[in-house]
Amino acid sequence: MRIKTRKRNIAAPLDPSTFADAVVQIYLDNAGDLELIAKSIESSDLNFSRYGDTFFEVAFTGGRTQPGTTKPDEGERHPFSIIDCEPTPVGHC
């Protein structure tokens, strides 16, 4: 008798660095244009439900983070992050 492994029991290993690099590339390809970035993200086949925290890190800081700091030596970064944007007064767009 042969024991078969069910497909639902096979877990793909987490790979947040590849996911982060793909999101950074979307930002770079669209030069920070948020409408184009949103369209590219929506049409991508990236697994946002699995890597939601990584997506937030990339959008907010421009790349992956570790507790207390960024990971400058791991993966590419983009200059269009929320932290790096120019502050504007509320009500002035």
TrEMBL record:
- Could you tell me which residues belong to the region Disordered? 62-83
Positions of the 5MP1/2-like HEAT domain? 3-88
One Pfam family this sequence matches: HEAT_5MP1_2
Q: Which GO terms describe its cellular component?
A: cytoplasm; membrane
Quote the protein name from its UniProt record.
5MP1/2-like HEAT domain-containing protein
Q: Which organism is it from?
A: Camellia sinensis (Tea plant)
